[in-house]
Amino acid sequence: MANLRQWRQWIPGLALAAAISVLALGLALGAGLVRYGASSLTLAILIGAVLGNGWPALAQGARRAGLGLAQRNLLRAGVALYGFNLSWQQIVAVGSAGLLADVLLVASTLALGCFIGIRLLGLDRETALLTAAGSAICGAAAVVATVPVLRLDEARTAEKTAVAVGTVVLFGTLAMGLYPLLYAWIGPQHLDFGRYVGSTVHEVAQVVAIGDALGPEVARGAVVVKMIRVLLLVPFLLLLGAFLARGSKAEAEGASRRSPVAVPWFAAAFILLAGVNSLQLLPEGVVAALRQCGMVLLTAAMAALGLETTLARMGRAGLRPLLLGAALFVHLVLGGGLLNWLLG
């Protein structure tokens, strides 16, 4: 009986998040906006933010419990199912140069993001990490996957997630205009442009959009390299979880130094499901359905976060996250170009 009452508390908020996610997916896939780099994740948080600012009471009252569930549980499940988008065969296909470019750019972008964000701009650790993760790995998906590891309260989650996703949307959109110009200027004879795009552009949808504009050969290489970057999300989450756990134990008086580090279950599930996908243990139709299910869950989570993203909350963040996003964008374009040129 208690479980039934709990489900009834969740239904209004979940129904609202589901409705926004259906609209976002319809615009991204049905209306074809994904071809222009507008993924369902970014559309969901934008739609949610518009509704949340125009009708603040929408995210309160009876809908509060269900929206909280979407921000926590649906988000984690969606990240786990995202593993079906990857396979170990993709790693082999890009070769050592593609893998090295991804690892070096992800590591350098995360390190630079923390240094510039925390040391130079004076941002809090969570905002700097979320912004750096979005730029370094896979845009909005990396931001929402990092949130549970940070263990923020719901109010701070919405504010910081929206700011980080905002930088991804802005500079990813700039990339879609910039990279075709760079391709026309540099040309494919001086740079593996598919690898360059895949290792430096924020969102998967943005990589696909740029690849489509530059031709099928660039598109194939760019998407595969980008998916390898997505796979690096898991070691990042595990290392971040270990680092934060160590810091918490050091601060807690009398804490045992031998306490085991908690591994985020959704990160372990991500790796497991990528392995299942690699071994082709499930029919392609089932895998396609699970991929779509994961995207729906992530989109619903982003919708729930968007509903709590008010202009007042974003205004409190100021210009500093934008400056951090700009610095990381310059690093990816220039540093990523130089690295890919050196790798041949």
UniProtKB/TrEMBL annotation:
Membrane disposition: Multi-pass membrane protein
Subcellular location: Cell membrane
Family: Belongs to the UPF0324 family.
Subcellular location, principal: membrane
The protein's name: Integral membrane protein (TIGR00698 family)
Organism: Azospira oryzae
Source superkingdom: Bacteria
Pfam families, per database record: Cons_hypoth698
NCBIfam families membership: YeiH family putative sulfate export transporter
Residue ranges of the TM segments: 40-58, 99-122, 128-150, 162-186, 227-245, 265-282, 288-307, 319-343
Record key words, sorted: Cell membrane, Membrane, Transmembrane, Transmembrane helix
KW Transmembrane helix (keyword) present: yes
InterPro entries for the chain: UPF0324_pro, UPF0324_YeiH-like
